[in-house]
Design a protein that fits this description.
By secondary structure, the chain is mostly beta strands. It folds into 2 domains: 156 residues, Trefoil (Acidic Fibroblast Growth Factor, subunit A) (Trefoil); 97 residues, Ubiquitin-like (UB roll) (Roll). It has 4 helices and 19 strands. The strands form 4 sheets. Strands 1, 4, 5, 6, 7, 8, 9, 10, 11 and 12 form a 10-stranded antiparallel sheet that branches. A 5-stranded mixed sheet has the order 15-14-18-16-17, with helices on one face. It has a two-stranded antiparallel ribbon with strand order 2-3. A hairpin with a 2-residue loop joins strand 9 and strand 10.
Length: 303
């Protein structure tokens, strides 16, 4: 666990495909293997969380971009990987179910491949987190595959790169132009209606939100939280909307800090990226910028 301190940020690079890293996809569901780019994406950063069960410390990895956790997809049996991939699908999931079967979906054990080396296996029972696409590069999904014989395949090995942390918030993406039509995922046959300037019945995403005290306390039952619908993906617009709903709003667009709560049992993650493409409801905790709770938040350094 020395490569994964609790609360630290890391990137995981495939040892077999050394120019690609583990990414949380923008659909808020998938996990894939992609290049980091000249300016590393926040989607490639994961926050470490230790979880102790029956005296054993396990690992949970939370996306720094979207807040959800790296997990086995589906229920306890998992979901088969797409064609061309091996094993079961890996996914991003909330931690909102107290049953042990679902808790185990997020549970990983770290196994060093060689002493003093910084590449590891991430084990889910007798399966390992696996990269795909060594030969067919378009098969870039990440899966969880059986490793009963404890094979030494580098496709099941990950080099751990620590990411520095800071208390300085990351810059927000720019607000979209005022004339831009807010779109979710619209079928191709409807594009002609957009070009003709007609109004489209775009489905809304539900935002449930709660205000936290300056110390970070808030109502834990999200069924009691207020809700409204939004029609675009802009985090800038979302912060403005939520700011205007606060009783102490003074027109300062940066007066409040937003955090994603990924399920009843998930840790808060600062929201600094545009929202994922999924229409799943989002649970947002609103902190006053400058409060002790907001000042205690940490952010990865994207270098």
């Amino acid at each position: 666990m020395d490569l994964f301190p609790d609360g630290a940020f890391v990137r995981l690079r495939s040892r077999a495909i050394s120019w690609k890293y583990l990414h949380a996809d923008g659909d808020w569901a998938g996990v894939s293997l992609r290049r980091c780019g000249r300016v590393p994406s926040l989607e490639a950063v994961w926050r470490v969380e230790h979880w102790v069960h029956e005296g054993v410390t396990y690992l949970r990895l939370q996306s720094a971009a979207y807040g959800r956790y790296l997990a086995l997809s589906g229920e306890d049996a998992g979901e088969d990987a797409p064609s061309g991939h091996l094993g079961l699908k890996a996914a991003q999931r909330d931690i909102d179910d107290s049953t042990m079967v679902n808790f185990l979906s997020w549970r990983w054990r770290v196994e060093r491949v060689k002493p003093l080396k910084n590449y590891v296996r991430l084990r889910h029972f007798n399966r390992d987190l696996r990269a795909n696409g060594r030969l067919l590069m378009w098969n870039n999904g990440v899966t969880v595959d059986f490793n009963l014989a404890r094979r030494l395949s580098t496709m099941m090995q990950w080099t751990v790169h620590p990411v520095a942390a800071t208390s300085v918030p990351l810059p927000f993406p720019a607000a979209p132009p005022a004339h831009q039509i807010p779109l979710q995922q619209i079928p191709l046959l409807l594009w002609r209606r957009i070009w003709r300037g007609r109004q489209l019945p775009v489905p809304a995403r539900t935002i449930r939100h709660v205000r936290a005290s300056d110390e970070g306390n808030f109502d834990q039952n999200h069924l009691n939280w207020r809700a409204f619908g939004i029609y675009d993906h802009s985090v800038f617009n979302l912060r403005t909307q939520l700011g205007q709903l606060q009783h102490d709003w003074n027109g300062d667009m940066f007066g409040f800090t937003l955090c994603i709560r990924p399920g009843l049992n998930g840790r808060l993650m600062p929201l600094v990226t545009d929202l994922p493409r999924s229409l799943d409801p989002m649970y947002i905790v609103v902190l006053r910028t400058g409060s002790p709770a907001a000042a205690a938040l940490v952010y990865p350094v994207l270098l």
